[in-house]
Design a protein that fits this description.
Blueprint: H1 4-39, H2 48-68, H3 72-99, H4 107-166, E1 173-174, E2 177-178
Antiparallel strand pairs: 1-2
Length: 182
């Protein structure tokens, strides 16, 4: 089983990759839109790389936040952003694939946009899985801390009873029953 530290580093690396994919997709979409405006009327789907890039960028930023602060709410927010990025990437791929069938299409830009979408989809899927692993690891860590804390407080109670019975102070009574002396 991976340690929490390895999961965090993997999540951090994937988040940086998602930010890079988001920026690259936004730039590629802007280039595509400017080329389309110069040649013909823009159609539905011409701006889809920009929107999916924005989803990937937000997902990566939330991933960086999640790697820094591992609270439950941030993990849920990051998982939701990953799912939105996944949906945005799938829609982008479908729109660009449909645009690629036009006779005057820019095949190289569309191929690059579909490649970025596939990488973003894969990255979002892996990030969602890693977030689940991180949440499980954090839950186990908190359980062990609580267990240790309860064990420590139980030892302290026993020590107080022993100290009180040895120094002449009457033993503490619990629920009407006197504490047994050793």
């Amino acid at each position: 089983m991976c340690s929490s530290r390895k999961i965090l580093w993997s999540l951090l690396l994937l988040s940086v990759v998602e930010v890079g994919l988001g920026v690259a997709s936004i730039v590629l979409g802007a280039v595509g839109i400017s080329w389309v405006r110069g040649h013909h009327k823009p159609q539905q789907g011409d701006a889809s790389p920009v929107w999916s890039g924005l989803c990937f960028l937000v997902c990566g930023m939330c991933g960086l936040l999640c790697a820094r602060k591992r609270t439950g709410l941030i993990m849920i927010l990051f998982s939701a952003c990953c799912i939105c990025g996944l949906i945005g990437g799938i829609l982008n791929f479908q729109f660009v694939r449909a645009l690629n069938k036009r006779p005057d299409s820019m095949h190289s830009i569309h191929l690059a946009a579909m490649t970025l979408a596939c990488l973003g989809i894969s990255s979002c899927t892996l990030s969602t899985w890693l977030t689940c692993r991180l949440a499980s690891s954090e839950q186990q860590r908190m359980f062990l801390e609580r267990e240790h804390s309860l064990h420590h407080s139980h030892e302290m109670t026993e020590k107080e009873i022993l100290d009180n019975s040895s120094n002449g102070v009457p033993p503490i009574s619990y629920n009407g029953h006197g504490a047994a002396s050793p």
